[in-house]
Write a structure and sequence with these properties.
Number of helices: 14
Radius of gyration: 19 Å
Length: 286
DNA sequence: TTGCAGGGGTCAA
DNA sequence: TTGACCCCTGCA
């Protein structure tokens, strides 16, 4: 992979497997907004950038070599060989079709604190509402940053969120999840560093001790932070697509997870992303 | 216009 | 195993 800077842009030449639209719209993140020219503006790790596909290249605007090396290279998972992953999980015609459809999806390595709160908000919620709540939390309690003269807001720290009361949280339209957010922020601050989870065998168990974090949310946090690739978050869409295309009948959460563990193995999480995008975009099972 | 179901699940009984 | 849960949107 070759990259260079040009003004306030980083240009990554001849990038394989990086479709900006699919990566931001496959359901793993909530803070990227599509612009009329097809680029995406968003905030991650305290920085606001614009990302776009230009032919075979990817451009990142409002950044520099230093941030690219320290933040974006990891965030966009640029060190990974997606051909290898795809070869590992392409076990059948269904999966090959889903991979073909979702070709260019990358799994982002996102911030743990933001993931924890975002996916607590996602429970029994709709994507537009989740985005709205996350934007409101950021606007009210995040830090101001600038991009091309416009104001953006970073996602607030757990430290900051842990000091809010239920009324303040409820104003961000999180509904019954305000209690979960408050309690989880306090637990997170008490743990000192969520990054400890990186090297913890019991990361999933620990995450499920947080208020509002069950098996699905825990798996999303593990997968979208890059801690684990073998987890397979099962939500209503994945349940439907697995039942319709693989089981040909109703199947329990446990059944599905045991099946994919053996079937897709260490890269089950990538299979989940291709299937999720495929199922949602084509409304499979609806 | 009004009413109701349902949504990236989790919790508590 | 089951029902409640904020509250906004879509649809009849």
């Amino acid at each position: 992979m070759e990259f260079f800077s040009e003004g306030n842009k980083i240009i990554i030449k001849n990038v394989k497997d990086f479709d900006v639209k699919k990566t931001f719209e496959c359901g793993q993140c909530f803070r990227w907004k599509r612009e009329s020219d097809g680029s995406y503006k968003g905030v991650a790790f305290g920085k606001a950038i614009i990302v776009r596909n230009v032919g075979n290249d990817v451009e990142i605007e409002n950044t520099n070599i230093c941030d690219f090396k320290n933040i974006w290279y990891s965030y966009f998972d640029l060190g990974r060989d997606y051909d290898k992953i795809k070869a590992c999980i392409a076990k059948d015609d269904i999966m090959r079709e889903a991979i073909k459809f979702g070709n260019g999806i990358r799994l982002l390595k996102q911030d743990l604190e933001e993931l924890l709160i975002s996916f607590i908000i996602s429970a029994n919620n709709t994507i537009p509402r989740i985005s709205k709540s996350i934007d409101m939390l950021s606007q009210n309690y995040g830090r101001r940053i600038y991009l091309k003269g416009d104001i953006y807001y970073t996602f607030p720290s757990l430290e900051r969120l842990s000091k809010l009361n239920l009324d303040e949280l409820s104003k961000c339209k999180v509904g019954f999840r305000s209690k979960y957010i408050m309690e989880s922020a306090i637990i997170g601050v008490r743990m000192k560093y969520l990054t400890m989870l990186q090297s913890d065998e019991k990361a999933r168990e620990i995450l499920m001790k947080f208020s509002g974090v069950g098996p699905k949310v825990a798996d999303c946090i593990l997968l979208f932070s890059g801690i684990r690739q073998d987890v397979f978050p099962v939500d209503v869409w994945i349940k439907r697509v697995m039942e319709k295309l693989y089981f040909k009948r109703e199947a329990s959460l446990k059944e599905i997870q045991e099946f994919v563990k053996d079937y897709f193995g260490e890269y089950a999480g990538f299979a989940q992303q291709y299937l999720f995008y495929y199922a949602r975009e084509n409304k499979i099972g609806v």
